[in-house]
């Protein structure tokens, strides 16, 4: 596994990748590029256990969303258009015309909209746990959900973050909870910036413009598993799969299972399209 930075117009963009050789060498072997976007307010760390395995069938590049992980956001407000265009910035930088796009949760919204922004350019799209909100839900969340945390000399903000993460994932062990808290801290006090972008965005318009995606993926133990039926209804797709027992962190907890699903999806399309 490797990692690095790209110098983007807004600042440094951090990424992680699989395999032992440089990205250029992997791409020269004809493997498809897989651009991966994480859920907020986390980071590409959540994909680390899966990257080397994925590198056997593609060139996985997991980016830290601007403002999250180790990526800079620069100035200005980020809407879903800007987040989505990160995919095409990376693809252009690597000289790849038709990458595969993968996204989880908020990252799924960005991946779908990236496909919508450049219809026909993505070689394929896989979405894992798509958050599909009603207009009322979006308005309610914009008003009340995920307020910024305030640094406190006594460290009470650390307890606030810990309690929030533990409340969302009560089944998680202390190691995973600690890793998630680290991601929250990296995101900064206003960790919900990308949430607000999603709540202001018209996902249904993205779905219409993007066309059918290759796979809608969910898990029966996913925190937003109830939204899978909404995504199946809202987004055109070739396949929809619910993995028994899989959580939000499929790539981290079951990397071989995660890799197999993605590799199978990519290989199937390669066979059917020649």
TrEMBL record:
Q: Which domain of life is it from?
A: Bacteria
Which Gene Ontology molecular function entries are recorded, alphabetically?
catalytic activity
Where is each AB hydrolase-1 domain found? 32-144
Q: Kindly name one Pfam family recorded for this protein.
A: Abhydrolase_1
Q: Give the InterPro entries listed for this entry.
A: AB_hydrolase, AB_hydrolase_1, AB_hydrolase_fold
Entries under PANTHER family matching the protein: AB HYDROLASE-1 DOMAIN-CONTAINING PROTEIN, HYDROLASE, ALPHA/BETA FOLD FAMILY PROTEIN
Q: This protein is called what?
A: Pimeloyl-ACP methyl ester carboxylesterase
- Organism whose genome encodes this protein: Saccharothrix texasensis
